[in-house]
Amino acid sequence: MNPSGSNPKVQQAWFSLLKSRTAGLACFTTLILVWMSLWNPTFLAWSNLRDIAVAAAPVCIISCGLMLVLVLGEIDISVGSMMGVLAAAMGAMASASRWHLPPGVAMVGTLILGVFIGAINGWLVAYLKVPSIMVTLGMLTALRGVTEVIMGGQWITDLPPELRSLGTGTWLGIPICLWVTAAVVLISLWLIHRSTLGRRIYAIGSHPKAARLAGLPIARTQCLVFAWTGFLTAVATLVSVPQLSVVDAGIGVGMELLVVTCVVVGGTAVSGGIGNLSGVLLGALLMTMISTVLIFMKLGENATYWSRAIQGLFILGAILLEPWTRSRKKP
Amino acid sequence: MKHCFSLLSPRHLLRGCLIAWILFLSACGPSTPSETTETGADNQAVVAPKETITIALIPKKKGLPYFTSCASGAEAAAQELGNVTLIYDGPTDGSPEKQASMIEQYALKGVDVIAVSPNDPDVVAPAMRKAREKGIHVIAWDADAVTDARSYFVNQSTAQAIAYGMVDTMVQDLGGPEIRAQVAIVTAYLTAANQNIWIKHMKTRMADTYPNLELVAIKPSDEDQKMAFKVTQDLMKAYPDIKGFFGISSVSFPGAAEAVKQAGQSGKVMVTGLATPNSMKAYVKDGTVKSVVLWNTAELGYLTVQVGAALAQGTLKAGETTFEAGKLGTKQIEGDHVLLGDILVFTKDNIDQYDF
Amino acid sequence: MDAFEEKTMKARLPSWLVTPESLLIGLSMAFWFIMGKLDHSFLQWEVQRELSTHIWETALMALPMTLIILTGGIDLSIGSIMSLSAVTAGLLHQAGWPMPMGCLAAMVVGMACGWLNGWFITRFKVHPLMITLASMAAFRGMAEGVSQARPLSGFPESFTRMGNDAWLGLPIAGWIFAGSLAMAVWIMHAHRLGRCIHAIGYNEQAARFSGLRVDRMLLGLYTLSGLSAAMAAILFMARRNTAKADIGAGVELGVITAVVMGGVSIFGGRGTLAGVCLGLFLIHETREFVSWHWSRDELNLLALGVLLILSVVFQQLLGHKRPS
Domains, chain B, ranges and CATH? Predict the structure, then answer.
């Protein structure tokens, strides 16, 4: 395979393309905000924007991890089922009618479980060299089954207030989940730009063979990235599931599709090597905004039936933003 | 990569298929002739008193506490009758195609009774008819199926009564029919059959009896609590004068209630709908929700098993107007509907008595 | 596993034994044996024939999907194309069109959707994953909008017989699948297109430089995928006598699972139709048997996931190298 990333001129071209993608997304988002504010000024109210951000928070958090997975050249479609199983485990641990553990233990337990499941994914991909699509596809199905077994046909309706405050509480007027999202984004930025791990991820993703010859620890990096995604999924579970009082078995269904959409709309190459955090965040925000926009537009009852079609067109529009979008595969 | 091309060659493929076919046929035993009894349009042939009756109880979605509570009642009936083996299984994702596949499997296995709560009556109808042709008694419970595909429908209450009950409860919570109010419905999937029937009846009720109610939006929640939460939040912002929400699925009701509570509108914006009392207890206690509409699910499951067992034994024949349902007493039969009774409304006063 | 171990591992076993296809055959035979021991009634021909009706639609769609994945692409929108085609046929039938014309229209709609996918992919050079993600939402949305989420049923009996009747022991849907499989095998072996698909999968740039009309072939493949989705919709309508906007929901996952299980590499270039058929068979039998024997649907999900992971793990352990 032609090492495209080694030529500085080509690299510059990639980066400028990336920047234009993010700029394009930012323009698109601003356009929508402006249009909506003209249509219905309450759209720009702090409470509305805050609620959109809160709804987008779990998607943003998981997208930070998934982006690195895609950059690495792998894929992880088990995040939705992971969230389901983590929510069920968290509920079972903390609920008074189940295992009734202290909330702190439940929180830590959920985080550890997330890392554990992610590490299993990573181990299978890195050391047994199983294609990540198959591992995560299998996990997607298996974990959903495990969730159903844990829930056992009942919902968990008595989460302790300490846990609920993670989802509903605020600090200095801003919801806790937004603080956590900001922290995750900052850590991810540091990871990508300042740490050796980030360098390695991009190197391995853009040219695995060269990376192997250069002696980079590929297996360990792969394992770490998957474990990191598992950890972030647990974090997202902790801040978003307690927003509601009922933990049901259907949490996270379809989440993986949403996250992948956000990440690719945000400009991460599916083939690996290219990824941009700001694009991903904008993508997540945009995707979450669509349903709110449609409700605010008050298009009437018949239009409700077309809302999914409109969503599809939105995604298409965001993807085709630039007329000269990058090629499907690296040259 | 040479080997994969050689394996692709038609010669190898053909050889492989032939071997597989022979292996398969040898592994399969001869098919046992299935017992067929004569079936009429709506009569099932009378079968001699059975030693054990196998009843397959299929919910819409396994894992929903609503159905789990029905199953507990069904299990109680099975224990009481003594000669009933109950199989409770259903699609965990609520897929109608999965339900139809399950019905076909039970028909092949040769159970005595299949009781199904169809997600989509049209999709499961062919499978139900095939099962009836094999001599299996097929009844519907909780949600009706196509009329000629089942012999009886065990109904907790008519769809009309459920819909009217919700609208009446909402009007009562709002303060009376004179109050002008905007309301919205948060449903399950747009294609959900039950919910659509209820919506139809609700619209009729609002148009005929409560002209002061204005239905401003019907939004789906795709059986996702988060989505129900977000939709309710957005609707409250888009329609600042909205005064009531109907959460007509057991997943959308808690989500909608939570959104109203977090917006600080508890008591100002009314929320009502269908859900199990346990999931709504907290909201009823703190005043966000005044009334929860449902029915006694355990009794529904109990009645279903009683009806199924009676059909299998031959003690329930076509044309009867009453049915003795064990400890539930006498139940009315209207045509081919076996009625459980009325809807139940849970409020602050009585919700603690129920645990499901 | 380092290079030395890989070599010695591979040296111990003959090369034809370590392919995913052989593993799948071995797994199938092992499963049959276990199933027979646990519950012999499951293996009766009557039972198997009836249960097979659940898989023909997925199998039909898996064939073009294999070809597409072999080129390194993917088509996530087949479920939605299925919905749209079904709704088209249903609405036209309601409007009084004769059923064959309705089915023809459905197939045209399916091909048009597939063609649109292919056009966006080749014209704008966007990764198929992204385009088909968008079209997945768009097509299903169109189906919901056009049908107002209402169910459409009441198809004539001559039509529904196609879904339920059998001919020479195999359901009609099975014959349609067999015909499509024959065609797919012919494409892959006897026709130039087969070699071209592999070439595109190995290295698309090289294929372009070699003079292959890559864009036209991809366009054709995605159109074919749309057509197969439409045919699957027709089979479903005949079997279940209903057309609704949600009948294709989630189907793509099952199809991709079967294809990937059959040893087709998601990166393109490696994979066989035989493997996919075996993968379909294995998944179908496992799903049906778990349901048959234990009657607990949640176990079904668990079993399927574990089966998937275990089969790939064995594939890897037997020494099959993953393409870099």
Answer: 53-156+296-341 (3.40.50.2300), 159-294 (3.40.50.2300)
What pLDDT sits at residue C40?
84
DSSP state of B143: S
Q: How many CB pairs under 8 A join A and B?
A: 94
Neighbours of chain B (3+ CB pairs under 8 A): A, C
pLDDT surpasses 80 at A276: no
From B228's Cα to the closest Cα of chain A, the distance in A is: 10
Flag whether A178 is in a domain.
Answer: yes
Query: Which chain A residues touch B if contact means CB-CB below 8 Å?
Result: 40, 42, 45, 47-48, 51, 55, 144-145, 148, 151, 153-155, 157-158, 168, 240, 243-246, 248-251, 253-254, 291-292, 295-296, 298, 301, 304-305
List strand residue ranges (DSSP E) for C74-160, in order.
152-153
Mutation target for C interface from A140, A316, A321, A330: give the one with most C CBs within 10 A.
Answer: A316
Q: SS3 for C49?
A: helix
Q: What is the pLDDT along chain C (324 residues), one digit of tens a residue?
A: 455 555 555 556 667 766 778 888 888 888 888 888 888 888 888 888 888 888 899 999 999 999 999 998 899 999 999 999 999 999 999 898 998 999 999 999 999 999 999 999 998 888 888 889 889 989 998 998 898 878 888 888 888 877 777 777 788 888 999 999 999 999 888 888 888 998 898 888 898 898 888 999 999 999 999 999 999 999 999 988 888 888 888 888 889 889 988 888 777 777 889 899 999 999 999 989 998 988 888 888 898 899 888 887 877 776 555 444
- Domain-located, residue A9: no
- Measured between CA atoms, the residue of chain A closest to residue C71 is A329
Considering only CB atoms, C324 lies closest to which of A208, A261, A325, namely: A208
Residues of chain B with pLDDT under 50: 1-8, 29-47
Count of the separate structural domains present in chain A: 1
Q: Does C53 touch chain B (CB under 8 A)?
A: yes
Helices (H), chain B: 2-8, 10-27, 65-81, 96-109, 121-133, 159-174, 193-209, 225-238, 252-262, 277-285, 297-313
**CA distances from residue C187 to A39, A194, C64, C196, C224 in whole angstroms, order as listed:** 54, 51, 11, 10, 12
Question: Helix (H, G, I), strand (E, B), or coil: what is residue B118?
Answer: coil
Average pLDDT, chain B: 84
A320 or A321, which is more confident? A320
**How confident is the model at residue B6, as a pLDDT?**
41
Q: Which residue has the tokens 């900052």?
A: A186
Average pLDDT of chain A to the nearest whole number: 85
Alpha-carbon span B162 to C252, nearest angstrom: 37
Q: Does C206 touch chain A (CB under 8 A)?
A: no
Q: What is the domain range of residue A241? A: 14-319
User: What 8-state DSSP symbol labels residue B272?
Assistant: E
Query: What token pair was written down for C166?
Result: 């059998």
Mutate to test the interface with C, among B21, B104, B105 (most CBs of C within 10 A): B105
- The answer to whether the CB atoms of B28 and C48 lie below 8 A apart is yes
Say yes or no for a CB contact (<8 Å) between C32 and B27: yes
Question: Is there a contact between B4 and C50 if contact means CB atoms under 8 Å apart?
Answer: no
H/E segment holding residue C42? none
Between residues 250 and 269 of chain A, which touch chain C (CB distance below 8 Å)?
257, 260-261, 264-265, 269
CATH of residue A47 = 1.10.3470
Residue A330 domain-assigned (yes or no): no
Enumerate the domain spans of chain C.
53-281
Q: How far apart are CA B171 and CA B194, in angstroms?
A: 22
